């Protein structure tokens, strides 16, 4: 017991500089991620802002039951999961493919230019991206529909058709984030031993073979880590864009958990009900991450923990 | 009990002339200095400025410095309240008051009437206003602005020059509107003759001429009963018309996502000729258009025999005092000033020499103010939280002689009932809010499908039946109960 404690202390002393470096991040997580967790108790109460957590009456699972019995609940959950899943399937591979293409580009100056341009959309806010979408896709004034009409087709009601919402959401996501997402994969590519390429060349491998047998295997550990991190994102689709692009005509697909929680919780002031929905979702997210981590640990050596 | 006790005390001080005697108590010399934080809207068309005249005049009259804090979105109010650091006063709509008032966010003004003789006199003189601000449990959590409601009326207007040029007369019915729009489309193939920009909310404006408002409202035939508009036969007729307009390219296909800028472009570039919009936009557009002219249009008759606009005139925006404020007395003093005759005058007209001069016994605003909206932009006059009572003549005095017609004509077409709902208790609010969201989501989605052609109009009656499976009966019983209670309380 004593021995253990002293070794911990010794460890702390030895790593003090690193621990000090960790401190700000740790403080951030405690303050902004763990302390607010206490707030989940309001989902079991009829929370009153002015009575506070200590004096609001407990109501057990009332709000969870209300959510489960709401006929919209299933639609909202399905929309969220599908949007997250499609986003995962289509957005996740985009930066990997782009990174490999950048890697294969031999004209360095052009490559740097294209790379920089591809980062740019990342720095636009969802508000700007959404209004860009609204303008470009407008059936009366938008360029895209003007082009469609000039080819002799009827204008497409992109944003007034539930069937288009997911495509637009995911398409704009890829445009916005793929370039920036390549950074981590490019770093992984840079760390691949050049000797491997030389050996492959000696063995007679062409560019395509080299990509297939050296580049892609070299990316796998990073990809797996990113994959697990992204799994959590399936359920936590961001509010902004879904909210800004959503309207009465596409709400069948655009109403997701976060827009619903925003409407019910913040706008109509039902904090307890909204907290109950949010907590249910957080639990599902955790199960997703835990499950995928477990699977990846079974299948290979790479895992988050 | 409390209210009646207060009124006794005030009889002596306010009975003769409520204005001057109350104002005297609020002169800067006798009033202690205070600073109030007020949360208000952030309107990009008249961006708030710290040096607006309206705040300067408040300080001169009451010794209160106002710090305006701005809402950045519809969630700002909820966040301000839940943050624990509420501003001293807050601009509120009825729905905000219903949500947060009973939870204890706002001070009960009915208990403080002795400090606000002008407010009390105003409410006593206007029992309808008093009923509107009184919560089901008797508290008064807010006061509504009064006097500028005429300015938020939605009206119809059309391009009279284009109509004249092509020998067309303004449509009298929706049938006419449709035929006229077809003719205009033939004459101007790239145009969308009919345009509106509030998406689904525009049904609130179109509805009355078909005898309904979309959701819950008092029955015009018997205002003691609540109705749900989409069950009315008129709703089907309106949606059918809009579907026709959409299908034949007579209104822009993106009617649902149209914003102010896009709407302005349609109007100013000869792309649209008939529209509905806030009354003030008529003059603003006429001033902006390089050529052409817009004119007030009598609303086309939908069903029935009378043309109607929504009932307007009342304002739905007002002020509440935060229950957590440390400056409540200053807040009451400010409210009382805003509801005094002097406050009404100064906050509507500004000050002689500074904003206006008297010519031939009539007040004339100086040349800084060219159109009514400049009152807001330059001095903040008639913006949120800057007035209690408003003298609408101030606004009208800047409306050009040629543009006055709309203000004279619009009130003639008012629907008998306003689009309002009775106040709910906190329990009722909590019980009905998921259903309200559910039914709103359902009907707006389906109606947009009917209009865009995603669902055939033959399905309408089925749709009306489906409303019932989206919480309609709970909504109706809740609001009927609330209306009964409100009526019992006012009697």
TrEMBL record, chain A:
State whether keyword RNA-binding applies.
Answer: no
Q: Does the keyword Transport apply?
A: yes
Subcellular localization is given as: Cell membrane
Q: Which GO terms describe its cellular component?
A: plasma membrane
Q: Which InterPro entries match?
A: ABC_transporter_permease (IPR051393), MetI-like (IPR000515), MetI-like_sf (IPR035906)
> Which UniProt keywords are given for this protein, alphabetically ordered?
Cell membrane, Membrane, Transmembrane, Transmembrane helix, Transport
Which CDD domains is this protein grouped with? TM_PBP2 (cd06261)
Query: In this protein, which residues make up the domain named ABC transmembrane type-1?
Result: 77-290
Membrane-crossing residue ranges in chain numbering: 20-45, 84-102, 122-144, 174-192, 212-235, 271-290
Residues annotated as coiled-coil are: none
Biological processes annotated in GO: transmembrane transport
Its placement in the membrane is given as: Multi-pass membrane protein
One Pfam family for this entry, by name? BPD_transp_1
Q: Which family does it belong to?
A: Belongs to the binding-protein-dependent transport system permease family.
Protein name, per record:
ABC transporter permease subunit
Its source organism is: Paenibacillus aurantius
TrEMBL record, chain B:
Q: Which organism is it from?
A: Paenibacillus aurantius
Q: Where is the composition biased (Low complexity)?
A: 1-34
Which Pfam family name is an example for this entry?
SBP_bac_1
Name assigned to this protein = Extracellular solute-binding protein
Query: What InterPro entries would the database entry show?
Result: Bact_solute-bd_prot1, SBP
Q: Which domain of life is it from?
A: Bacteria
Give the start-end ranges of region Disordered: 1-44
Q: Which residues form the signal peptide?
A: none
């Amino acid at each position: 017991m004593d021995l253990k404690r002293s070794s911990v202390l010794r460890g702390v002393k030895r790593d003090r500089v690193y621990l000090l470096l960790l401190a700000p991040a740790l403080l951030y997580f405690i303050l902004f991620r763990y302390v607010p967790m206490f707030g989940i108790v309001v989902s079991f109460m009829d929370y009153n802002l002015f009575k506070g957590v200590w004096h609001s009456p407990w109501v057990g699972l009332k709000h969870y039951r209300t959510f489960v019995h709401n006929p919209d609940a299933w639609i909202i959950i399905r929309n969220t999961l599908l949007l997250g899943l499609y986003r995962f399937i289509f957005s996740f591979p985009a930066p990997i493919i782009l990174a490999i293409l950048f890697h294969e580009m031999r004209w360095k100056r052009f490559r740097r230019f294209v790379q920089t341009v591809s980062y740019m959309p990342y720095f636009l806010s969802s508000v700007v991206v959404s209004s860009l979408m609204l303008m470009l896709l407008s059936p009366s004034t938008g360029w895209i529909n003007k082009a469609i009409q000039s080819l002799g087709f009827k204008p497409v009601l992109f944003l007034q058709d539930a069937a288009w919402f997911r495509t637009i959401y995911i398409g704009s996501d890829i445009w916005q984030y793929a370039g920036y997402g390549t950074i981590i994969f490019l770093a992984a590519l840079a760390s691949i031993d050049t000797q491997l390429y030389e050996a492959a060349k000696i063995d007679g491998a062409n560019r395509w073979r080299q990509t297939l047998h050296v580049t892609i295997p070299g990316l796998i550990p990073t990809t797996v880590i990113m994959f697990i991190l992204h799994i959590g994102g399936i359920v936590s689709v961001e509010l902004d864009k879904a909210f800004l692009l959503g309207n009465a005509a596409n709400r069948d697909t655009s109403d997701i958990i976060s827009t619903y929680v925003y409407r019910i919780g913040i706008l109509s002031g039902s904090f307890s009900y909204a907290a109950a929905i949010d907590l249910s979702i957080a639990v599902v997210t955790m199960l997703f991450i835990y499950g995928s981590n477990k699977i990846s640990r079974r299948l290979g050596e790479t895992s988050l923990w | 009990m409390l209210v009646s006790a207060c009124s006794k005390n005030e009889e002596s001080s306010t009975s003769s002339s409520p204005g001057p005697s109350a104002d005297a108590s609020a002169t800067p010399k006798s009033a202690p200095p205070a600073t109030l934080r007020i949360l208000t809207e952030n309107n990009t068309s008249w961006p708030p400025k710290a040096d607006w005249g309206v705040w300067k005049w408040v300080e001169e009259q009451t010794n209160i410095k106002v710090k305006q804090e701005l809402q950045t979105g519809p969630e700002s109010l909820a966040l301000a309240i839940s943050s624990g650091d509420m501003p001293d006063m807050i601009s509120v709509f009825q729905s905000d008051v219903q949500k947060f008032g009973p939870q204890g966010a706002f001070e009960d003004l009915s208990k403080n009437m002795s400090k606000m003789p002008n407010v009390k006199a105003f409410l006593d003189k206007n029992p309808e206003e008093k009923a509107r601000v009184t919560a089901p449990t008797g508290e008064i959590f807010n006061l509504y602005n009064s006097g500028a409601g005429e300015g938020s009326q939605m009206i119809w207007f059309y391009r009279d020059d284009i109509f004249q040029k092509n020998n067309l007369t303004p449509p009298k019915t929706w049938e006419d509107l449709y035929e006229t729009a077809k003719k205009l489309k033939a004459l101007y193939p790239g145009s969308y003759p009919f345009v509106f920009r509030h998406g689904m909310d525009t049904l609130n404006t179109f509805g009355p001429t078909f005898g309904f408002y979309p959701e819950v409202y008092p029955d015009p035939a018997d205002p003691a009963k609540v109705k749900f508009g989409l069950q009315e036969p008129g709703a089907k007729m309106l949606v059918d018309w809009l579907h026709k307009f959409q299908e034949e390219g007579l209104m822009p296909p993106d009617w649902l996502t149209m914003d102010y800028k896009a709407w302005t472009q349609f109007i100013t570039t000869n792309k649209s000729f008939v529209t509905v919009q806030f009354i003030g936009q008529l003059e603003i557009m006429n001033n902006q258009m390089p050529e052409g002219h817009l004119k007030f249009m009598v609303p086309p008759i939908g069903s029935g025999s009378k043309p109607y606009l929504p009932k307007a005139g009342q304002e739905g925006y007002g002020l509440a005092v935060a229950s957590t404020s440390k400056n409540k007395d200053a807040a009451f003093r400010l409210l009382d000033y805003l509801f005094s005759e002097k406050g009404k005058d100064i906050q509507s007209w500004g000050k002689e020499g500074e904003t206006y001069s008297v010519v031939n016994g009539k007040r004339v605003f100086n040349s800084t103010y060219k159109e009514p909206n400049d009152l807001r932009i330059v001095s903040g006059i008639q913006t949120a939280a800057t007035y209690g009572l408003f003298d609408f003549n101030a606004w009208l005095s800047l409306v050009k002689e040629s543009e006055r017609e709309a203000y004279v004509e619009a009130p003639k077409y008012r629907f008998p009932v306003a689009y309002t709902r009775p106040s709910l208790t906190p329990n009722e609010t909590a019980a009905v809010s998921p259903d309200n969201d559910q039914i709103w989501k359902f009907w707006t989605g389906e109606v947009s499908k009917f209009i865009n052609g995603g669902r055939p109009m033959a399905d309408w009656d089925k749709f009306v039946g489906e409303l019932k499976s989206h919480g309609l009966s709970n909504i109706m019983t809740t609001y009927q109960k609330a209306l009964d209670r409100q009526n019992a309380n006012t009697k």
